[in-house]
Amino acid sequence: MIIDGKKEAAALREEIKKEISLIKKKTNKIPELAVILVGDFLPSQIYVRNKEKNAKEVGINSSVIRYSKDITEKEILKKINELNNDDKISGILVQLPLPNQINKEQIINSIHPSKDVDGFNPENVGKLASGYHAIVPCTPLGCLLLLKRIEKNLSGKHAVILGRSNLNGKPMAQLLLKENCTVTITHSRTKNLKEECLKGDIIIAAVGVANLVKKDWVKDGSIVIDVGINKMGEKIVGDVDFNEVKNIAKAITPVPGGVGPMTIACLLKNTLECFKARLT
Ligand code: GUN
User: Fold this and answer.
1) Measuring from atom 3 of ligand 1, which residue has the nearest CA?
2) Which residues are CB-contacts of 120 (< 8 A; sequence separation ≥ 6)?
3) Rounded to two decimals, what is the model's pTM?
4) Between the chain's N and C termini, which has fewer beta carbons within 10 Å?
């Protein structure tokens, strides 16, 4: 089975849109997302354009604050402080990567945890790791929602994660632990990666190596979620060799059209959650 991320994301957006419309009727308020975009890195420009388009479609007011690549850290911190103190703003997102002169950690730490729609602020990271209610990073949240569409009860499943990044691998592990999975996190220094992968009832690939996971890395009937976005000539491919693995896996996400649309839908979901928290 091929998991249709576009369809799942459209269904989630529809739910979000309905909820926003209901709240608007009651309160005359709508969520507002502020996106900070630094420089002219093309993939970031494309992501931000997609985020804006999707936000508008569900009734979220989205604004993009653009800076040239030689902006100072101080200037961005000043803007974030302004947005933190602006009651109308529900969520703040600083698009990554940032230019070298800017300390990413400082920027992420400065976003108020209640407006941190990416879930990257250490307060949200810590809450997630402690099993408390937290804002969860959008990509792993999207992966979990897709997994749960295939298998409602993930308890006892062995999940193998490829990649240990703060954006994907680590929060993914926390989410799967919460679902009572047995979790293995693998990374670039892991020995016998193929053997580790073969243990997985679930495989989450998030390493950024084109077509890394082959058919003989995957157990019959496993669920494979591919987070990779890699350029191969003119084509975009994932971290999983889709054509090989689709015949072995019980379910697999394609690239594009799998995790990507869910990431953006989850950003809208997080923005709505932050908005609702401020209403009460
Ligand atoms: N750049 C690539 N992915 C992401 C993401 O999920 N959030 C932010 N802020 N920047 C990104």
Assistant:
1) 96
2) 108, 111, 137, 166, 167
3) 0.97
4) C
